User: What shape does this take?
Amino acid sequence: MNLDFVRGRMPERKIYWHESVSSTMTEAARLAAEGCPSGTVVGAEEQTAGQGRFGRSWVSERGFGLYFTVVLRLPVAPERLPVVTLALGLAVSDTLRLIAGVSCDLRWPNDVLINERKCAGILVHLQDSVILAGIGLNVNQLQFPDDISSQATSLALATGREHQREPLLVYLLGAIDSFNSVLLTSGIEPILQMFENSSSYARGRRVVVDQADGRVEGITEGLTPAGFLKVRKANGELFTVLAGGVRPADPSANLL
Ligand code: BTN
Assistant: This one.
């Protein structure tokens, strides 16, 4: 990572970039507890225990991706946290389109997909009212471990060329600020609207959602005013997904 390039374009920003860490979430949590400013970025060339949602791991091969966590001190109530995740997805989507020339899909709440394969994931933790926004973006990977290879992709695989990580990082950090300021100044509604416009999963998509007490299958029907996903079950009941992995009901599609 050419940090001079990044710092030159955002001199105010506190950026810590490590060669190798267990997880940037852990490092960011430590810095947040020490009182680091909002916007502080903790990134790494490699994570040895990268965290995904639901206790999964995030494969973080050295030098091939962008793995970082941003510390956000935002006046957002805990129940609004799901919308912050959606705003982060929009920031990634804009970045991929404008910097890499790739259009992607968003799968509620936190998956960024290219051709139905996962290219980026978002992990949001709340620590003492500080938001830790973790983003893993597959940039130049040409292969993935066997267990995820059919479900994962990278910008390089999707476009057939290598991408510089620095401009992606610079733009993405700016986009995160922009979408968060939309959230703070205009509220949840525009974020929900933009998410629905950017996600083929938000409406009319047959999905399966794994819940603690079983699986729910139905057709998506937009988001609630708080940003949760609505799914219409075959019996006509409207189910609100508060958390859980959403995947296409079509078994031939991506299951990651
Ligand atoms: C998911 O899709 O399950 C979320 C993946 C989030 C991965 C990123 S990589 C940077 C940050 N550090 C971690 O350990 N996880 C997040």
